[in-house]
Design a protein that fits this description.
By secondary structure, the protein is mostly helical. It is built from 5 helices and 4 strands; from the N terminus they run ββαααββαα.
Amino acid sequence: MADFINCEKCGRVFKTIAGIKLCSRCRETDDDMYKVVREYIYDNPNSTVPEVSEATDVPESKILHFLREGRLETVGQAMLIDCEKCGVAIASGRYCDACTNEMSRGLRNMAKQMQAELNPKKDDQKSLGKGMHTRIR
């Protein structure tokens, strides 16, 4: 289902699909900046974020955003970013592997708990007085 929202960047009203928060015009501008940054990094692989920003006229915050989205990945120490949970240096994304695995385990455990609450075992049903039984005469 598509909803109408305001673009986060320019404020124009547009029909969003799959939670996209930028209108097509702003997404195109973003994609153009990404291509410029990607090409620069391809030609200059050991550049830092400030160097890439200065050379491409793309704001550092946008380059960091591309890294957080996983659209760019760093090699070596030049453009590392921090895990949002523990602060360890990572090459791309929002969380390090350890934090991602920890959160996954937590979500799986929570899903199992919820499943158990929704579908109690047969033994539990008997003790609660649920189910069929015969009447004593």
